[in-house]
Write a structure and sequence with these properties.
Layout: H1 2-58, H2 62-95
Helix pairs in contact: 1-2
């Protein structure tokens, strides 16, 4: 009767809380991975535009070279911002134990 109902309610509440923790854990991992991938993508774009700028200079296309230089500056800025974000968040990520049920507590690292 009432005991069975109470246990079912507690079980459902616990499963929902466990699911929320798992989703947060995944979000942290995905956000960190996206940040690192973004930095690499920005680096790739910067290098690509450097090659295009050099090719435009060799071909005597100054307008194209100027546009490529603007793109280089844009991608470099984005790469540097991503790098700073990684530098700021890395100490926080090192403190987070994603294996621990409450990942925001300071669980001892094994």
């Amino acid at each position: 009767g009432d005991l069975h109902y109470s246990l079912a309610v507690y079980r459902i509440t616990w499963l929902r809380a466990k699911d929320r923790v798992e989703r947060k854990r995944e979000q942290v991992i995905f956000a960190w991975t996206d940040l690192e991938c973004s930095e690499r993508y920005f680096q790739f774009q910067e290098e690509k535009w450097k090659r295009w700028a050099e090719a435009a200079r060799k071909d005597g296309k100054q307008g194209h070279a100027c546009y490529a230089c603007k793109q280089i500056a844009t991608w470099k800025t984005l790469k540097e911002r991503a790098g700073r974000a990684i530098k700021v968040t890395r100490p926080l990520m090192d403190k987070v134990d994603l294996r621990h049920p409450n990942m925001w507590c300071s669980a001892p690292k094994v």
